[in-house]
Amino acid sequence: MPMRVDGDLFEAAKSVGAVASRSAAQQISHWARIGRELEASPGTSPRDVQRVLAGEAGYKYDNLGERDQAVVRASWDEQLDERRAKLNLATEFAKSGRSWSEADAQGHLVKRHHAQQDDA
């Protein structure tokens, strides 16, 4: 659903989103989901959550409360989904000339072979 956002917010989302391979709209949605979780939990520490997600020394997932851990897991799930959507191992293997195995729709093993091309 279309909506208007402040120009500064849009530019920030565009900038931060580029680092995480998200469009400005995807970044704003990401921020909204995290914000929803944070507002639902009065004991949540947004700064600690961000520090865990950034991998800062001294900030560990196990030290967060249950709600903070839920926010971190939601963010990790989103990041994994985005990375999986961009992943195309068949193309990568074919480009490098590597063979690979995978399961077909019925669960049967299928071996894929690609000969490496010689540079002439």
From TrEMBL:
Protein name, entry field: ParD-like antitoxin of type II toxin-antitoxin system
Native source species: Cryobacterium psychrotolerans
Chain segments carrying region Disordered: 97-120
Domain of life: Bacteria
Pfam families named in the record: ParD_like
